[in-house]
């Protein structure tokens, strides 16, 4: 399949030194709000990269559920492949692609578990079916058939028929504590606008323009 003619020119916007807000968190919030306002699907979907102990990267989509100047939180199974890699390295990268705006944001940073109480608060806000799903799926493990999940789901439905579904020990949030943010706006002739925020020795954010 020859895809060499599959290309678009990026003409929807520009991003310059004057547009940059002092805090990357404020900048992220501004772009995130614009992504929400443009009605694109799942603006909080991010591609999360982890690395195994032997240096093999892997990626998957997770949903951003909270962000503030403390960091960016997502929820997952603590025994999944991503979690095993996070626990071993303490580091991730994440990418938001907002294609209708011809924008991407790249984040790198360290990761910490959110508190049990924060995970519980979010867990209790989830629909009953998703709560059962967290108890049912041994995420990332090999299973012999779909019926393994369906049988386990029936068991969980019976087990938790009465009362609240408790937070599983193997499920909760991770907070990415960013050490860099890159904001990318597509421009014509592949001469895109890129700005990176990093921290100086005094832990103050500074920005630099990167070549596209
Ligand atoms: C749109 C979308 C949203 C997803 N959100 C999450 C999420 O928030 N948490 C999660 O654990 N998996 C989520 N997944 C599934 C993951 O992409 C992935 O398949 C799963 O977490 C197992 O990844 P791992 O085996 O690399 O750990 C989502 C998938 C898609 C396509």
TrEMBL record:
Cofactor stoichiometry and binding remark: Binds 1 FMN per subunit.
EC number(s) on file: 1.4.3.5
Residue stretches making up the Pyridoxamine 5'-phosphate oxidase N-terminal domain: 33-156
GO MF term (any one): FMN binding
Cofactor(s) of this protein: FMN
InterPro entries registered for this protein in UniProt: Pyridox_Oxase, Pyridox_Oxase_CS, Pyridox_Oxase_N, Pyridoxamine_oxidase_dimer_C, Split_barrel_FMN-bd
SUPFAM superfamilies in the record: FMN-binding split barrel
Record carries keyword Flavoprotein: yes
Residue positions binding substrate: 7-10, 65, 122, 126, 130, 190-192
A GO biological-process term: pyridoxine biosynthetic process
Pathway field: Cofactor metabolism
Annotated Pyridoxine 5'-phosphate oxidase dimerisation C-terminal domain residues: 171-212
Keywords: Flavoprotein, FMN, Oxidoreductase, Pyridoxine biosynthesis
Enzyme class name: oxidoreductase
Residues given in the record as FMN binding sites: 60-65, 75-76, 81-82, 104, 139-140, 184, 194
Top-level taxon of origin: Bacteria
Quaternary structure note: Homodimer.
HAMAP family from the UniProt entry: PdxH (MF_01629)
Family: Belongs to the pyridoxamine 5'-phosphate oxidase family.
Stated name of the protein: Pyridoxamine 5'-phosphate oxidase
Record organism: Coraliomargarita sinensis
